[in-house]
Amino acid sequence: MTSSKGAKLVYRPIGLLGGVLAGVISGAVFKQVWKRVSHEEDAPDALQSEYRMREVVLAAALQGAIFAATKAAIDRAGARGFTKLTGSWPGD
Question: Transmembrane segments in this chain: where (predicted)?
Answer without folding.
Answer: 9-30
